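Amidohydrolase structure dump, as promised
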Amino acid sequence: MRSDCHQHLWPPAFIDALRRRDTFPYLREWTLYLAGEDPYTVDPAAHDVGRRRAREIAEGTGRVLVSLSSPLGIEHGPGHDLIDVWHESALELPDPFHVWAAAAVTEPDPSGLARLLRVDRVAGLQLPATALGDPAAIAHVSPLLTELERAGKPLLVHPGPAPAGESGMPGWWPALVPYVAQMHRSWMAWHLAGRERHPSLRIGFVALAGLAPLHHERLTARGCAFAVDPFVFYETSSYQAGAITALSRVVGEGAIVHGSDRPYAQPLDQAVFPPALFTTNARRFLTGQP
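structure tokens r here:
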């Protein structure tokens, strides 16, 4: 089965919930307002469930994992209302869509997550990289990660909200500066403290962890030993052959899994990349099956 491990698709109920808000994040018609970014015009077709489903079927994708958009900052906000709307509406999406669970990180609810993880269509949990930025942060969300280990399901680490106060920068700034820095930091923090706490947890970093593993020589030169972790995976969104090849030489081809970040980017060309990125690597990340 060909898998896409990283897409975003807002069901109608979730869109309506964003429109009812008057604090960040919120929608006005199809304009999205976030604390740390300029207003963004959303393409309505990008969240047309029927159109998106038809496209995936036409492309032969058997499993598409959709997630809450962590740059919205919802996981860091008070309460669980929007997260509950996400789960209720996303779990009603038709095949081939499956769901990454979300979780509040200010007040983690491991028992609520445990109930969600028993649902077959829930692949695992996505957390913002901003919730995993140092050993103390990992300790704070550790009860959630413990439930993932018990369920045998993986963690996906996604960039979180850009810092407020950086508006006015070019539109590409959040994706190229704070998002990449967040991925570097969370990858380093996991290397430092996460694996020791959660020895069997499979974890995937989107956007190739911002290419953090390419700094392994610098890491070693500063006295921190680096070894390839068989339970760490790297999702490809926004990168092409140059970066994917460079990273695979460090972490191995088996650690690279396909994700597109659709509708903000497009899937990789299957004719150019090893089939395992779309099939066996993704299966190993999602299920642990060899």
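The chain is about 35% helix and 15% strand.
lmk if u need the other ones
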